[in-house]
From TrEMBL:
Residue ranges of the region described as Disordered: 1-40
EC numbers, comma separated: 2.1.1.170
Domain of life: Bacteria
Gene: rsmG
Catalytic activity: guanosine(527) in 16S rRNA + S-adenosyl-L-methionine = N(7)-methylguanosine(527) in 16S rRNA + S-adenosyl-L-homocysteine
Pfam families: GidB
Name of the protein in its database record: Ribosomal RNA small subunit methyltransferase G
HAMAP family: 16SrRNA_methyltr_G
C-alpha cells in the first residue's frame, strides 16, 4: 500500500497506529467542555478567535474565503443552540477540528472544481469546500444529507456564504440519481465504514471522480476490511490537524 504525507510526495515514516517512530507527537490543545446552550456564549469568542489563527496557519485561505467561513461559523453557532450540528465538546476548536480538517482536501485535489460530499451533516467538508470554491469558474459542490433539519441548515449556510453549493435531501445511496453532470471528487467525513463509503461513491468514481475520505486512527483496519469487498490501491495522507488520515482512491472494482 502506498502511503504519502500531507503534500502527497513523501513516503510516511510509519504505519497508521504505530507508536514511537515518525514525527514527534505534541500535546493536544486543551478542550473546554461546552453544551449546546452555551454555543453562543461570548466567552467562547476569544477562544475561537485563537483557534482560527492556528487553523489558518495549517490551511491558509484568501481573504474572501475567510470572510465566507466567518459567516458560516457564525451561522453554525447560532443553529447549534437548537440543532446538534457538531459535538458540543468541539465548539472551542471549530476552526482546527473542522474547518482546517476540511480545507486540506482542496490541496489534495487542486484541479477539482465539481465536488460531491456524502452525508454532509453540519457542512464538513461540503460547505467548507463550497466556500473555498467560490469564484472559481465552473465550481459546484453537491451536498447530500438525509436529515431534514441538517439539510435546511446546509441550504442556509450556502445562501449566507454565497457559495456554489446544491443541497440534496436524500438517502446517501440515492445520491447518483440526484447529482447531474460530471463530478471530479467525492468526499465523506465521519459517515460510514470505508467499505460502505466505497459502495456509495463507486457510481460516481465509475464516471471519473476520485475519492477523498477523512478517516481516524483505525484506518488500517478499515482498509483491511474494505479489501475483502473491493480491489483498491489507496494512497494515505496524514491529516494536518491531528492523528487522522485522508484515504485517496482513484479507482475501485468490486471483488467477485
Amino acid at each position: 500500500m502506498k502511503q504519502r504525507g500531507p503534500g502527497g510526495d513523501r513516503p510516511l515514516s510509519r504505519r497508521p497506529g504505530a507508536g514511537g517512530a515518525g514525527r514527534r507527537s505534541e500535546p493536544a490543545p486543551a478542550r473546554r467542555k461546552i453544551d449546546k446552550a452555551s454555543a453562543n456564549d461570548q466567552a467562547l469568542d476569544s477562544i475561537i478567535a485563537a483557534d482560527k489563527r492556528e487553523a489558518l496557519k495549517l490551511a491558509p485561505v484568501s481573504r474572501e474565503t475567510e470572510d465566507r467561513l466567518d459567516r458560516y461559523i457564525a451561522l453554525l453557532r447560532e443553529w447549534q443552540a437548537k440543532t446538534n450540528l457538531v459535538a458540543p465538546s468541539t465548539l472551542p476548536n471549530l476552526w482546527t477540528r473542522h474547518i482546517a480538517d476540511s480545507l486540506q482536501l482542496v490541496d489534495l485535489a487542486s484541479t477539482a472544481r465539481r465536488w460531491a460530499d456524502l452525508g454532509s451533516g453540519g457542512g464538513f467538508p461540503g460547505v467548507v469546500l463550497a466556500c473555498a470554491m467560490a469564484g472559481r469558474p465552473g465550481a459546484s459542490v453537491h451536498l447530500v444529507e438525509r436529515i431534514a433539519k441538517k439539510a435546511a441548515f446546509l441550504r442556509e449556510a450556502i445562501r449566507v456564504t454565497t457559495s456554489p453549493g446544491v443541497v440534496h435531501l436524500a438517502e446517501i445511496g440515492d445520491n447518483v440519481d440526484r447529482i447531474t453532470g460530471p463530478v471530479d471528487c467525492v468526499t465523506a467525513r465521519a459517515l460510514a465504514p470505508l467499505h460502505q463509503l466505497i459502495g456509495f461513491a463507486e457510481p460516481l468514481m465509475r464516471q471519473g471522480a476520485k475519492a477523498l475520505f477523512l478517516k481516524g486512527q483505525d484506518v488500517e483496519a478499515e482498509l483491511t476490511e474494505a479489501a475483502k469487498y473491493w480491489n483498491i490501491r489507496p494512497q494515505l495522507h496524514q491529516s494536518r490537524t491531528g492523528d487522522g488520515w485522508v484515504v485517496e482512491l482513484t479507482s475501485v472494482e468490486r471483488r467477485g
